[in-house]
Amino acid sequence: MRPRWVGHVGWIAGVTGGLITVVLGALFLKSGLDASDKWASVFGVFLNVAGVAISVYSIIVARRSPSTPHATAAADDGGRVINHVEGTNMNGPVVQSRDIHGGLSIHHQSAPKPPQPHGDARSSQDP
Fold first, then answer.
1. Residue 4, SS3 per DSSP
2. Domain of 66, in residue numbers
3. pTM, whole model, 2 decimals?
4. Which residues are within 8 A (CB) of 96 and not within 5 positions of it... i.e. 6 or more apart?
5. How does pLDDT run across 12-52, given as a tens digit for each residue?
6. Is 86 inside any structural domain?
7. Where is this region: Disordered (predicted)?
8. Alpha-carbon distances, residue 123 vs 14, 114, 115 (angstroms)
9. Secondary structure, 3-state, 54-101
10. 95 occurs within a structural domain
């Protein structure tokens, strides 16, 4: 069973962010314009570094996690890939893809066939 506060994370984050903003605003107002500008630059640098670090971490986590339950099964099976198609009537090329959810219809139209000659293939002007 998860703790009760887990459902209120958004409210907790909002109130905490609001309190931090009010406290920083009061400090900037008390310290004057020049000092506030310098402190804001320092805070901005640290916030940008933290944002880049979080972005890199989230990219690494997203690349390591399987995109579908089938990918987990394939990884557990020694990395062997198994392609499975069922419930379809194929008349043409088969397109294999990744992470398609829902119905998929691919209609292939073959190139028109060249006209077949009737009777003698020679033209009437040949001797």
1. helix
2. 32-77
3. 0.41
4. 83
5. 999 999 999 999 899 889 999 899 999 999 999 999 999 99
6. no
7. 66-127
8. 86, 17, 15
9. HHHHHHHHHHHCCCCHHHHHHHHCCCCCCCCCCCCCCCCCCCCCCCCC
10. no
- HSE, side-chain direction, 13 A CA sphere, residue 122: 4
Amino acid found at 2: R
The number of domains in the chain is 1
User: Which residues, in sequence order, are CB contacts of 63 under 8 Å at separation 6+?
Assistant: none
Residue 10 corresponds to which amino acid? Answer: G
H or E element, residue 104: none
Radius of gyration of the chain from its Cα atoms, rounded to whole angstroms: 33
Quick one: tokens of 72? 């987990």
Q: Is residue 124 part of a domain?
A: no
- Residue 75: C-alpha distances to residues 19, 78, 81 (Å): 46, 6, 9
- Is there a domain that residue 71 lies in? yes
Instruction: Tell the burial category of 110 from Cβ atoms under 10 Å away from its Cβ (0-12, 13-18, 19+).
Output: exposed
